[in-house]
Amino acid sequence: MHEQTMEQLWSTSQLAGGNVAYIEELYEAYLKDPGEVPEEWRNYFDQLPRADESVTVDTPHKPVREQFLLISKNQHRNRPVSQGSVSTEHERKQVQVLQLINAYRGRGHQHAALDPLGLMERQSVPDLDLHFHGLSKADLDTRFQSGSLFIGQDEATLKEIVDALEATYCGTVGSEFMHIVNTAEQRWFQQRLESARSHPKYSKEVKLHLLERLTAAEGLEKYLGSRYPGVKRFGLEGGESLIPLMDELIQRFGSYGAKEIVIGMAHRGRLNTLINTLGKKTSDLFNEFEGKSEYQSHGDVKYHQGFSSNVMTSGGEVHLALAFNPSHLEIVSPVVEGSVRARQDRRGDTVGELVVPISMHGDAAFAGQGVVMETFQLSQTRAYKTGGTIHIVINNQVGFTTSKREDVRSTEYCTDVAKVIEAPILHVNGDDPEAVLFAAQIAADYRREFKKDVVIDLVCYRRRGHNEADEPSGTQPIMYAQIKKQKTTRELYAAKLIADAVISAEGVKDLEEEYRKALDEGRHVVKSLVKEPNKELFVDWTPYLGHEWTADADTSFDLQALQELSNKLLEVPEGFAVQRQVGKILEDRGRMGAGASPINWGYAETMAYATLLKEGYPVRITGQDVGRGTFSHRHAVLHNQKDASRYVPLCHVSENQPAFDLYDSLLSEEAVLAFEYGYSTTTPGGLVVWEAQFGDFANGAQVVFDQFISSGEHKWGRLCGLTMLLPHGYEGQGPEHSSARLERYLQLCAEHNVQICVPSTPAQVYHMLRRQVIRPVRKPLVVMSPKSLLRHKLATSTLEELAEGRFQTVINEIDELETQAVRRVLLCSGKVYYDLLERRRAEEINDIAIVRIEQLYPFPHDDLEEVLAPYTNMEEIFWVQEEPKNMGAWYNSQHYMQRAINNLKPGMTLNYAGRAASASPAAGYMALHLAQLEQYISEALDLQG
Ligand code: AMP
To answer: If we measure between CA atoms, which residue out of 598, 602, 653, 599 comes closest to residue 626?
Structure first.
């Protein structure tokens, strides 16, 4: 066999058709004498699994057959073929016909006419050739059983069968579903596609509606292009079919009972979607173009703006929300999922029927960005599933200026990443609006039936450059030469409808003029828009607007009720076998609840959740291993040692309590944190917590902090009360996992955008978590949470401190030092406090006070001044930190502390005691770590020399 033929067979064949038999024959020959088969095959067979040769001579067949069956399993799933039963030529051909049918199902999409420009390079697929299957044109008139082909008759001529297959699988819809392992899903697709030949006959009304939507899509771009020439708008031109596609999805989900649809999309086509799908008033958009908008916040460019509206469908009113998004492509997808899940949880919609996510993507980003895979991987997990997402790839076949297949991705399609979760993929030619409509219907119905993700790959083009000021033919000459000649989708469809006598040429003109007139008048152009929306379809955020961070919060909780709750958490179901060490933790908590021993971190944190639940606030916690806690302090989920069943005491705090949702997350930070951002920006009433395994893991989610958490309120007016627990602390564990990179978060702080806290006692974490919900303020909360402090003998609190206290932004010296005797004050945050305290006590130093700043941002100026004021004899003041000088709070927060000092002691400057600046966050050797610790503790406590 020639190398080329071999390569072609292996690279393109699904080992369907006659090949299994052929290869088996080869293998027989190989078994007799390996020298009889070509070298390439010999090498391949040499690698196959071997059975024990001493058993029977026939044994080697089995693994081989399994291997081939595995490769061609799609083939055999529908109709297992026994080669031994083939007795006549016709029967042999019958088998080949069935295999041909499956070849089309699996690979027909590779011959589909997907590219409106006709430039897409397609491989030839031998499996779709009659000869490959031992058939020829001479057989076209022979009648064969059509097997599982949904063709409306049991028998048909080969020609009829091939025509049906060509129409179904190689027309303007190319479907990929044979990679799905669930047979029911495969069959579902076969039935839906084959029975309609992937091109149902639509009524005149439907066709006119499609034309009207295309006219709107094209009309807006033309209008903006002539009114605001050269202004960036990332137009949809070339992908206008998106608008009828969206229209169909919304109407269809509405008719299935959806109440809310949340949409995520990047900038391309966004203005068109805002106007033609969500019904934004056109005059509002024009004002934005003309810079006349009122500033409510710092704002964002118009093609990042979100929008909300209600539209009417045959199933009732549906609320639409288009998520705000940054330029960072794809990151909005998990945000949308989180927002959808929050709405589903609010409605008790456990299957995802009432709220539907639609995520739009660009082809290059979909193939290129890792968060796409992470988001897919969320889709069926307990914590993050949303009943399936409709993904639409606006595939204009170019990413900015990169379009060469070899450069832009490694896979045939930009959608191949979706196969990671076996999502079906419908590639559709954007210049066939009816095919696009069909793809939308199939996608919506698949989600409804199977509650899983599905992808529509809208293959289109980009009529202009990356934006309207960009000239594309410098980098894509052939493509743009073709595009210049290309009629628009609307023109093509209008011509078709005129030819089919569905509409007259004047009718087409009328549609154009009607739309232009609506734009001239600045009107809404979505006919289904509900002018007086039903507000019950979405959450009222007004109670959370306009509060300062200083708003007071009473986080106390009646002592007796606290103890009752504490006891309740110790209850486990009859016969539930708690693991020994966990049992010990519960026993300890029993003693803490009884007031018999000091309270530790795990207890206080658990009681924060319990008391919030008791007061009616829902709580959601996700993150890596949050059930147990990375450092084994939480144990919120108990595991029965007998049968591995789980029991979550916090779900049984009281009857009618709100949800306590706690889930271990997949090992993702970016998608998971973005999801929780989406969740918390949709859930004002509850506590939403994300915990990183170690604080520095959050690095992988930096984009979420930068583009959403720290800036979302100021760019888009979207409040967010997300709490992030980032374990942080220098314990000699090396460069990784010591630092949560506090400096990064502090650097992002301005205009009271986030809160950064470093609680150092159990009572502090308790009140901090409670404050986060009880106060009407909704601000992201970044917490440097402890590791060794979870068990530190001094890091304890009392029941009374939980019952009566408050979160203290600054904690004054706790030992009874004589204030007037204090000549040096040490300011610090977090674990270093205990290092300082223990050493000062050991050295019996009485003139150095240690003050903890527990909230580094918004900086508690007044509280710090109040604490420092009595130290009137203070001569020196230090900031002490365990992080290197270029990290931690030193550079970002020193001027805040200095301001308080200036007010009390003009001229006194803040000194630094801590590690020297360092490229690496922490020392890798324990001895070096300890030496550094000794150095700065002695410096801070004035023990040197
Ligand atoms: P949505 O359900 O996302 O369309 O939101 C409905 C309305 O609630 C929006 O138009 C906003 O007025 C308000 N809203 C939604 N989310 C937030 C948020 N995170 N912060 C402030 N207001 C919000």
So the answer is: 602
- Closest by alpha carbon to 225, among 215, 237, 212, 216? 237
Q: Residue 539 CA: which ligand 1 atom is closest? A: 8
CA angle 94, 97, 101 (to 5 degrees): 145
Residue whose token pair is 């609320």? 319
pLDDT recorded at residue 49: 60
The pLDDT tens digits of the residues spanning 636-652 come to 999 999 999 999 999 99
| Same CATH fold assignment for domains 559-793 and 811-940 | yes
Distance CA 582, CA 579 (A): 5
Note the pLDDT tens digit of each residue in 456-469: 999 999 998 888 87
The listed CATH number (1.10.12.10, 3.40.50.12470, 3.30.230.70, 3.40.50.300) that belongs to domain 559-793: 3.40.50.12470
The arrangement of secondary structure in 204-536, i.e. its CATH architecture, is 3-Layer(aba) Sandwich (3.40)
Distance 541 CA to ligand 1 centre (A): 7
What whole-number distance in Å separates Cα of residue 273 and Cα of residue 279?
8
Q: Name the token pair of 741.
A: 């990179």
Contact 539, 321 (CB under 8 A): no
- Measured between alpha carbons, how far is 739 from 745 in angstroms, rounded to an integer? 12
In tens, the pLDDT along 344-354 reads: 999 999 999 99
Q: Which atom of ligand 1 is nearest to the CA of 537?
A: 2
Is the C-beta atom of 718 inside 6 A of ligand 1?
yes
Q: Class of 811-940 per CATH? A: alpha beta
73 has pLDDT over 80: no
> Which has the closest alpha carbon to 929: 941, 697, 694, 937?
937
Ligand 1 pocket, residue 681 CB under 6 Å: yes
